[in-house]
């Protein structure tokens, strides 16, 4: 119960920093690009985001025909999501639920995904969460997960500095390798696994003036943010049922 309350407190606080205009940032555009490429056709597909945060990426999927369902433990985050979807005149289904105790029948969705969620749990919880997500995927559907990458060296260094200075605001967060995520997914029963990393730029943003420096070096472009590399900030994994 204490852990759940801490998670709610953390993400309620994080929701206060959500801004509508974030959807136009170049790293978001890179995320949209890879998410859409991995999922494939979105039109009339039922899509569940588990631990949805701001819901902005799912809103992008909705603009391409996805039927969106959002689950989050933070009511404040879901409130932001509802306002955001309403501002775009997009329909959305919202559920204030614990990801480990979701109330959906098995095989309910074409795509079940999340980003920036798995790394906040221990290994046993990671496997349990992946299993619960995988059970909700229809035959022929996909599970998709993104996490920060252990081999994004600038990010790892910046994070350690922030943790030392007690400025890290996201609580427990384990940065994982592609091998570890693949192994966890296999343990959870996921099949037909595909995995890679992209975006070698955004890790620098966690340093003071990191955005300004990458701007000066002309690195803040869609081309660089979507680049696939072992040292990218984002690991993206999907499996096909």
Automatic annotation (TrEMBL):
Keyword Methyltransferase: yes
Recorded superkingdom: Bacteria
InterPro entries linked to this entry: Methyltransf_11, SAM-dependent_MTases_sf
CDD domains in the cross-refs: AdoMet_MTases
GO molecular function: S-adenosylmethionine-dependent methyltransferase activity
Keyword annotations: Methyltransferase, Transferase
GO biological process terms held by the UniProt record: methylation
Segments forming domain Methyltransferase type: 48-145
Listed name of the protein: Methyltransferase type 11
Taxonomic classification: Bacteria, Candidatus Woeseibacteriota
């Amino acid at each position: 119960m204490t852990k759940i309350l801490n998670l709610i407190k953390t993400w309620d606080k994080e929701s206060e920093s959500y801004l509508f205009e974030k959807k136009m940032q170049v790293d978001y555009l890179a995320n949209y690009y890879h998410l859409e490429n991995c999922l494939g056709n979105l039109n009339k597909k039922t899509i569940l985001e588990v631990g949805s945060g701001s819901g902005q990426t799912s809103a992008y999927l909705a603009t391409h025909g996805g039927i969106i369902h959002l689950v989050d433990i933070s009511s404040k985050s879901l409130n932001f999501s509802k306002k955001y979807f309403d501002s775009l005149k997009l329909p959305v289904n919202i559920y204030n639920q614990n990801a480990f105790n979701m109330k959906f029948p098995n095989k309910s969705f074409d795509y079940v995904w999340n980003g920036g969620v798995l790394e906040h749990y221990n290994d046993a919880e990671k496997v349990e969460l992946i299993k619960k997500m995988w059970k909700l995927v229809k035959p022929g559907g996909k599970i998709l997960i993104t996490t920060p990458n252990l081999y994004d060296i600038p990010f790892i260094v910046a994070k350690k500095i922030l943790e030392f200075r007690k400025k890290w605001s996201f609580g427990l967060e384990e940065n994982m390798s592609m091998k570890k995520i693949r192994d966890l997914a296999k343990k959870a029963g996921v099949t037909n696994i595909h995995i890679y990393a992209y975006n070698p730029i955004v890790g620098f943003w966690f340093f003071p003036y990191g955005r300004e420096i990458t701007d000066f070096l002309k690195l803040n472009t869609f081309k660089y943010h979507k680049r696939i590399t072992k040292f990218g900030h984002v690991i993206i994994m999907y499996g096909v049922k």
